[in-house]
Design brief:
Structural class: mainly alpha
Number of helices: 8
Radius of gyration: 15 Å
Helix content: 55-70%
Number of domains: 1
Order of helices and strands: HHHHHHHH
């Protein structure tokens, strides 16, 4: 399965229990989320420091453990951040071609939300609300 297909599947995971669906453990959710996150941020060309910021600035040892093993105990904040990044990725691939995704995320944007910064710069402020804002903005753009 392609990264895009994998992320779409992970991003579509419903929080409301469905009796006909297998329920995943927290460690399975963490592994899926971290695997998708590191694949996405690699595709976006982010370095380790930028990845750490998007994850909420965990300690370096913790970060590299997550990156190497794709597992670990994740806080609610980290799980929310993973969810936003996956949702952003999914929305970008619905709205744009693969080539245009990187242009949109890296180029300055004059929309009042971004104030001339690129969406990536905006997300790298490190605030959870920045990820939420970008996700809502893309959901709005999708209609």
């Amino acid at each position: 399965m392609s990264l895009k297909g994998y992320v779409m599947k992970v991003a579509d995971h419903r929080l409301v229990p469905d009796p006909n669906r297998r329920q995943y453990s927290d460690s399975e959710k963490a592994q899926a989320g971290l695997t998708a996150f590191f694949s996405i941020t690699q595709e976006w060309g982010l370095d380790n420091d930028q990845q750490r910021i998007l994850l909420g600035s965990p300690g370096r040892t913790t970060f590299f453990e997550w990156k190497k093993k794709k597992k670990g105990k994740l806080s609610k904040d980290t799980l929310d951040r993973l969810s936003y990044v996956l949702g952003i990725y999914k929305a970008l691939h619905i709205l744009f071609s693969n080539n245009s995704v990187l242009q949109w995320i890296r180029n300055p944007n004059n929309d009042p939300l971004f104030s001339g910064k690129s969406p990536l710069e905006y997300m790298l402020s490190g605030h959870l609300v920045s990820l939420s804002d970008v996700r809502r903005y893309l959901d709005w753009a999708r209609g």
